[in-house]
Amino acid sequence: MDVKIAIAINKKDVWFCRICVASIRYYYPDVEIYLLKDELNGKFSTKEIEEYWKVSLIEFSVKHFGWSGSKMHFYCDERFKNQKFLVLDCDIVFIGH
Asked: What element of type H or E holds 22?
C-alpha cells in the first residue's frame, strides 16, 4: 500500500491510540503507521505501541503543539512532500474493509 498513516496523539489519548492502531493493523497489517506526539499535556511514552504494533514516531524539534498543531507541522514538513498520508486523530477506529 503506498498510503501511510499518521496519527496525532497526546498524553490524555494514549489508550485511544492503542485501539486506533490495533484496528488499523487488523485490516491493514502491512501499512506504515507513524505517531505525531504532542507533549503539551505532559511527557508520555509510546514505546509499547511502537514496539508491539511496529509503529514509528515522527520527531519534530517542537514538542508542545496544542490543538491540531502537530498535524500542521506535519503538513508543512518538507520530509513528507509528495508522499501519500492519511492523517488521523487517535480516537478513530477502523471497523470494516
From this structure: helix 14-27
